Amino acid sequence: MPRGGGSEARLIGRAVMRIGQSMLASAWLSIAPAAAADCMADAPSPPAHRFAPINAFFDHEVATGKLPGAVILIQQRGKPPYLQCFGVRDVTRHSPMTPDTIFALHSMTKPITSVAAMMLIDAGKIALDDPVSKFIPAFADVEVGVESMADNGKPALERVAANRPVTIADLLRHTSGITYSYIGGPLIRQAYRDADIFAGAFDNAAFAERIARLPLARQPGTLWRYGHSTDVLGRVIESVSGQTLYQFEKQHIFDPLGMTSTKYVLDSDDERARMAEPLPGDTVLVVSERKRRAHPEWQSGGGGLVTTITDYARFARMILNDGEFDGRRYLSPAAFKAMTTDQIGPDSGVARDYFYFPGDGFGFGFGFAVRVEPGAAKPPPPGSIGELKWDGGSGTYFGVDRKRDLIFILMQQTESERGRVVPAFKKLVYDALVASD
């Protein structure tokens, strides 16, 4: 895939960029809300040279035109040892990256929607074993698509009855059978494409109805498969709460946590000017973002939120603190434990798809990938048993390592480079922490 924007990146001298971004980050911290400033109040940051390899890595990514820019936050023991900006928000405008730059989260929206659903479970409004049809009647008659070879030698898709209802737990752990148009057998993928589920204007209610008419890729509860499950979960939240998904999340998550820049639609020219953009040559993400922005009426619980790194850090700190933040509890201990426990382990009866995004060594809870073993790689990737993570197709990524009292977040806008940059970033984070221990 072409990597556009190299000439733009080179126009901005590397030394000027690094000095400028460091000054901007420092200036932003001095005017940040009190909670953000408090992150550095109790203790000095670790020596800067500990993070030199991280600086060098992202300097190189920007200087060679692979990334327009990035923002990184690493926080351990409640103190932010590292908050750094690299490059620009948009290579066409050359506006510098700052901590208040807004990023499209894509699938890093899913953990937030999952927390919102677990809050309703805590409140007794829904239960994990509730059928989705209790809240979205169209799911009462879902069918499963079985691909086979017909007598004439051509592939055929037979629709059969589901063995059991799709449940709330299925939506949370991606075992509903709902998929994406690019995952699964060819006939299932074609059925999604033929349905044209993004045509015209639609809200969460209409989108859930469209999904309910499509064949499930597998019987409910039998396979971890990525897809629109969390989008359907967003509609359940609306149905139960009587609010839009954004209204519910704003009231119960964003406002209490102080996530002032987290939303589905940007409201002002100032916010739009702060939006990070992918390189023009990052065509998959460019097209995906064009489609997302074409539907401001759709509050996609699976991929529609935009936010800043400092906003998401507040959410991540709440997860790090077992569902509590600044004296306010968002999740009961039981709900938090369920979310962060592998729900698709060997005794669950759930197989893992060939497209298993959590990765080697990770299970999946109710909204997060959960590390359950080191994995098969030699040496294994860095991290701890029990660490939590998720990422987005736009290149966003976060991890929560409770054993090390650590969160780490990467905000960037790239689909073409994320598979390389994300694991490199994680390794650099742990290398820096080991060096400073």
From TrEMBL:
SUPFAM superfamilies: beta-lactamase/transpeptidase-like. InterPro entries: Beta-lactam-related (IPR001466), Beta-lactam/transpept-like (IPR012338), Diverse_Enzym_Activities (IPR050789). The keyword Signal applies. Gene3D superfamilies: DD-peptidase/beta-lactamase superfamily. Residues 55-417 form the Beta-lactamase-related domain. Residues 1-36 form the signal peptide. Keywords: Signal. It comes from the Bacteria. PANTHER family: BETA-LACTAMASE FAMILY PROTEIN (AFU_ORTHOLOGUE AFUA_5G07500), BETA-LACTAMASE-RELATED. This is Beta-lactamase.
